[in-house]
């Protein structure tokens, strides 16, 4: 009998069927995310304490769903009003106060997005495993796990997953920021313009995607946070300079739209990969010398060496499936917008 350690392996495979069961598995209790706890974490990454009451209310589906319905209703109503007015800007939009508020809005979202991107990258770096025989399985568990209590690979000295270390904290604030971002639509409507299907669908859908990811503590939420915050840091910086009156070359706007499309395509593939990732748990035969190995092999050993799924239940899979379903129409809408805005031939 071999008495050496077996190292874990990571590979892709077909998603297990139990990940697609509906209704999705409910977490026992969604954890209140705490600020990042790494000793070197600066106060910049933990600016506020999250109220348990607000946290619980934000994860009650009736509130984000009601908000999304009201948002859609208001947009439809104001689109009709703007159309009846000949799409003329509202009077208050010509004031210096309104223009200053637009600049402040864009600048704040640009800075916030940069903070989010920095914070999530810092958190990932702080949890990244060191080289070793179990490097890849530790990496898989770090990226896949949202509950250190059920960790199979991470050592007692490094039991924190990315979720525990700060991704849940940053992710909840990221989710709440999506409620504020609907001011983008309100600014467009106040300017007398029509809020497009792309604009309206994007803002309503991302709120529900954020809710699902936080409610079910899905590790795939990391994908959206990294990609969206990075692109938004660039996008809102562009909007800030634009609202200040700077003339920005068309190639910049076209490049930002291309990056947004690339973001959604990358996010779709990356998120779906969570459904397919499996890893085996390293197993120490030497520690079982005093046990009945033959009996163990007949019962638990085979199960312990079987690959485990990155996602432990359908609850963790549901936000990924929901977000991917949301992304497909969004990608098509963005591609249509790109073609209409940047490839339309000028008429003679």
UniProtKB/TrEMBL annotation:
<feature type="transmembrane region" description="Helical">
    <location>
        <begin position="100"/>
        <end position="120"/>
    </location>
</feature>
<dbReference type="GO" id="GO:0019367">
    <property type="term" value="P:fatty acid elongation, saturated fatty acid"/>
</dbReference>
<keyword id="KW-0275">Fatty acid biosynthesis</keyword>
<dbReference type="GO" id="GO:0042761">
    <property type="term" value="P:very long-chain fatty acid biosynthetic process"/>
</dbReference>
<feature type="transmembrane region" description="Helical">
    <location>
        <begin position="221"/>
        <end position="241"/>
    </location>
</feature>
<dbReference type="InterPro" id="IPR002076">
    <property type="entry name" value="ELO_fam"/>
</dbReference>
<protein>
    <recommendedName>
        <fullName>Elongation of fatty acids protein</fullName>
        <ecNumber>2.3.1.-</ecNumber>
    </recommendedName>
</protein>
<feature type="transmembrane region" description="Helical">
    <location>
        <begin position="61"/>
        <end position="79"/>
    </location>
</feature>
<dbReference type="Pfam" id="PF01151">
    <property type="entry name" value="ELO"/>
</dbReference>
<dbReference type="GO" id="GO:0030148">
    <property type="term" value="P:sphingolipid biosynthetic process"/>
</dbReference>
<feature type="transmembrane region" description="Helical">
    <location>
        <begin position="317"/>
        <end position="339"/>
    </location>
</feature>
<keyword id="KW-0472">Membrane</keyword>
<keyword id="KW-0443">Lipid metabolism</keyword>
<dbReference type="GO" id="GO:0009922">
    <property type="term" value="F:fatty acid elongase activity"/>
</dbReference>
<keyword id="KW-0812">Transmembrane</keyword>
<keyword id="KW-0444">Lipid biosynthesis</keyword>
<dbReference type="GO" id="GO:0034626">
    <property type="term" value="P:fatty acid elongation, polyunsaturated fatty acid"/>
</dbReference>
<dbReference type="GO" id="GO:0034625">
    <property type="term" value="P:fatty acid elongation, monounsaturated fatty acid"/>
</dbReference>
<feature type="transmembrane region" description="Helical">
    <location>
        <begin position="261"/>
        <end position="281"/>
    </location>
</feature>
<dbReference type="GO" id="GO:0005789">
    <property type="term" value="C:endoplasmic reticulum membrane"/>
</dbReference>
<comment type="similarity">
    <text>Belongs to the ELO family.</text>
</comment>
<keyword id="KW-0808">Transferase</keyword>
<keyword id="KW-0276">Fatty acid metabolism</keyword>
<keyword id="KW-1133">Transmembrane helix</keyword>
């Amino acid at each position: 009998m071999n008495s050496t350690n077996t190292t874990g392996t990571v590979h892709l495979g077909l998603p297990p069927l139990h990940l697609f069961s509906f209704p999705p598995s409910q977490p026992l209790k969604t954890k209140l995310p705490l600020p990042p706890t790494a000793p070197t974490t600066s106060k910049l990454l933990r600016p506020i304490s999250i109220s348990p009451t607000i946290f619980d209310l934000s994860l009650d589906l009736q509130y984000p769903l009601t908000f999304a319905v009201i948002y859609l209703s208001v947009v439809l109503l104001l689109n009709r009003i703007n159309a009846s007015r000949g799409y003329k800007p509202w009077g208050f939009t010509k004031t210096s106060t309104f223009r200053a508020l637009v600049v402040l809005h864009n600048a704040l979202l640009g800075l916030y997005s940069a903070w989010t991107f920095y914070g999530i990258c810092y958190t990932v770096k702080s949890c990244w495993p060191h080289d070793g025989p179990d490097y890849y399985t530790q990496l898989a568990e770090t990226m896949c796990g949202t509950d250190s209590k059920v960790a199979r690979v991470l050592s007692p000295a490094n039991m924190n997953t990315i979720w525990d270390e700060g991704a849940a904290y940053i992710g909840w604030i990221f989710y709440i920021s999506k409620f504020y971002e609907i001011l983008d639509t309100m600014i467009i409507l106040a300017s007398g313009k029509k809020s497009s299907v792309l604009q309206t669908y994007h803002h309503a859908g991302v709120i529900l995607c954020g809710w699902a990811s936080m409610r079910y503590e899905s590790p795939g939420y990391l994908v959206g946070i990294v990609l969206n915050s990075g692109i938004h840091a660039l996008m809102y910086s562009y909007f800030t300079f634009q609202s200040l009156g700077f003339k920005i070359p068309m190639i910049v706007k076209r490049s930002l739209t291309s990056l947004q499309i690339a973001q959604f395509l990358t996010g779709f593939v990356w998120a779906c990969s969570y459904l397919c990732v499996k890893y085996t748990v390293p197993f120490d035969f030497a520690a079982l010398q005093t046990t009945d190995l033959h009996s163990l092999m007949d019962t638990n050993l085979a199960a312990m060496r079987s690959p485990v799924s990155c996602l432990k239940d359908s609850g963790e899979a549901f936000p990924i499936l929901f977000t991917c379903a949301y992304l497909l129409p969004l990608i098509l809408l963005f591609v249509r917008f790109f073609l209409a805005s940047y490839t339309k031939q000028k008429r003679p």
